[in-house]
Amino acid sequence: MKAFIRTLLLLALAAGIGCGSYTTAPTTLEFMYAVGQSNNIFNLKILSNGELQSSSVFATATAPRPVAMALHPSTNFLYVANLTSNAVSGFSLDHTTGVLAPVGNALPPTPTDPQPTALGIDPGGQFLFVMTQGDPATAIPPRISTFAIDARGLLTAVSSVDLAAAAQSLVVSPTASVLYVATGGSIAGFSIDANGALAPIAGGFTGAAGTNVAGMTIDSKGQFLYAADSGNNAVLSLSIDANGALTAVAGSPFAAGTGPVSVAVDANNAFLYTANKGSNDISAFTVNAGVLTTVPGSPFPAIPSGSTTQAQPAFITIDPSNQFVYVGNPGSRSISGFAIKISDGTLVAVNNSPFVAIGPTSMIVTK
């Protein structure tokens, strides 16, 4: 494993992560944490020009097969869902160096039900929600479990709610005590009470024939839920009512590339982007009250044209400064970076992109 990490680091440096000639050397803007294709959390610096550079501690070990992450609203804690070890690992962040340290003086990861695949945290930072797939062999159903988060970042099991079927994605509203899970072509909502317990909300959403929700996000005002429909090559746009019920926006669904699996909306709720696994590209839209309009030049290739490797993008995120889009490409074991043209949402590849290191299935960016 140590040799593998050294190889990744050398690849990253050889590929030009953070290198180049500048009149003024770019400074560290933010930190990126990524998981996928190994039992580590990879720690990268985002430079002020959008390039990626390996941090002083390039990889932090976590329990076997990390697949998803969640950042505490304080940005002081990062949580990782570990699929095959049935556990969640918690880490504190050093905001100067970006280095991660296990919470609780290296206590073991917190056990969960079988196969945790998605995480979410309520806006107040009190509760971590863990979506698990269950285990038919032991009659454990799919669930969402609630864990209380204390001031040290430690987790305590509180309650759980069974799901009728295994869900594919989970998202928590950034402004209200409500979360949503997607199962195939339907999205169900749950209210969150003061103790972290979940209760179903009437007014879920069921898509047209063939709908397969692969990923979801909610805008920063908590007004609209956007979902990548990989089955119909589209983006669903749903308004969120005061009680948490979902209503399709006029014109939804909106056509995207082939097989969209992840979706991200910028902090100003002006632009939305999808990672299209099937067509190896990124669809870009302007947003107006939930209505999506294709950006000129969209879709944008995930990796440069002419490459013999398929990117197979699996995850997309936008940095907190609202300047850059990053795409995790498991197929090409790379991360692509793009600058956002603020006038119209056009994407322009940053210098030296894609960055060869890993092919993340989940990424978190924070200051």
Q: How would you sum up this structure, described in words?
A:
The chain has 367 residues and is mainly β. Helices cover 5% and strands 49% of the residues. The protein contains two helices and 32 strands. The longest helix is centred in the first third of the chain and has 13 residues. The two termini are 29 Å apart.
> Which structural class do you get from the secondary structure elements?
mainly beta
Question: How would you sum up the global shape?
Answer: globular
**How many strands, which pairing sense, and closed or not: the largest β-sheet?**
5 strands, antiparallel
Q: What proportion of the residues is helical, as a percent range?
A: under 10%
Number of helical regions:
2
Note the gap between the termini. 29 Å
Query: β content, as a range?
Result: over 45%
> Tally of extended strands?
32
Give the overall pLDDT as a whole number: 92
List low-confidence stretches. Answer: 1-21
Radius of gyration: 19 Å
